[in-house]
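Assemble and predict.
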Amino acid sequence: MSDKPLLQMKGIKLKFGEKTILDGVDLTVESKEIVVVMGLSGGGKSTLLGVLLRLLEPTAGKVIFKGDDLIQLQRRKLNAARTHIGMVFQNAALVSSMTVGDNLALPLRELSDKKPDEIDKAIKEKLDLVDLKDARDKLPDELSGGMKKRVGLARALMLEPELVLFDEPSAGLDPIATKRIDDLILQLRDKHDVTSIVVTHEMESAFAIATRMAFLDKGKIIFTGTPDEFKKSDNEVIRKFLESYLAHEKTKD
Amino acid sequence: MKFLGDPLRLLESGALMISKIGILTISFLQELSSLYWLAHDTFAEMMDRLADRRSPFRLSDFFYQTNRVGVGSVPMVFMLSVFVGLTMALLTGYQLQKFGMTTLVPSVVGIAFTREMGPLFTGIVLASRIGAAFTAELGAMIAGGEVDALEAMGIGPLRYLITPRWLAIFFMTPCLSVAATLAGICGGAFISNMLLQLGYAHFFHEVMSNLLVKDIVSGVFKSFVFGALIGLIACYKGLAVKGGAVGVGIATTSSVVTAISCVIASDSIINIFIVIFFP
């Protein structure tokens, strides 16, 4: 077994015009980790996931995934590498004209040599995993926000990726739906050896699932460590972030 | 002193006009270069798929789009062409009647529809009916993050989304153009029989004997060009959408206006080319 990390982001910089979004991000992710990336709104967390999949071209830096720098790869090899990474988008981004079943079948039909009955079996398996067996023939518009996210997760898992990226998986969901998504992320690591990078604001979720946490501020990762180390961090921005969270929790009580 | 200000103002407005022309030229060239890169990248994605020994697009998608573009547009193209053919025969017939030359009506209608009206009306109908639909649906997919999702999965959204649409409109435009030409000629024959005392057999015989292969070839060639332009412009405008629902609306309007303008402009250019090189 290789002792190299699954993913390394080195010195990622991204500018939109004059505005610097990412200013030298370094992040290493080992196999079977659940790394939660936190930060203030508009701080570039979702952008970081876009750069990781090269949906956005960084100004500088490297994204080394399984030994290949994704930023340097030609389109054909990049697309091949992308099949090892699943992405669950904030709004699920399901193809609205296709049923749930067709959305799930899409990556397999396009990128694998599986036969229709094998695809059918894989769809059933993944819908079972996200507890949405009856949603197969529904259109995305007929699903609730939480259901869409679970279908998005099921689609991201169709190609059996080693790394899954979650962009705000609990945003806009009720506590029960949030808990269900959190459990799925843990289940993926425990039963399927999937590594996850989760971008979220939800502290409760973050502490429940993270094996490691990273904090993005002003385009830089200013902290990485375990959830306990995060709680004890004396960094001023993180302290303020935690205090606001605790104050908010007290108000709720 | 009175005259000193005027030349300065004139100079200022002249400079302003030149700067506006410059900005328009730059934006036109940028759009042109974006269109080129869209076509280039779509083709490159298709080649990648072939290198992986996979089909560059799904045949079922292609046939779905073909049905939508071709079969779905037949009633509108047919109806429009019949009425235009009818009006054309009627108006030219009444004018030619003054000189006792109504026998020229079949050849006028036949040649005009084969070379010009059939392809042109088909292009205009497809730009507004199908081009708008392509732009709106691709724009909505961009706004909903669906195109990013396809890209993230490694599917290659350009060849997946554009190829079946572009090929469908490319191959269906000439077919519809032939249908439009036949419908226009039939419309002309009907009114000529009713009001100009020209029998159907005589009308169709005159059409056939006056048509040249050159007329047919130029009409079909134009249709391919119109189809290629409409497909490319509609897909480009859709994928370039910015700003959600409002952006989709703006892009759709722009797509129809641009496609119709390009169809008419390219029609003129092809006509000039044919007249000069194939007199």
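Chain A has nine helices and ten strands.
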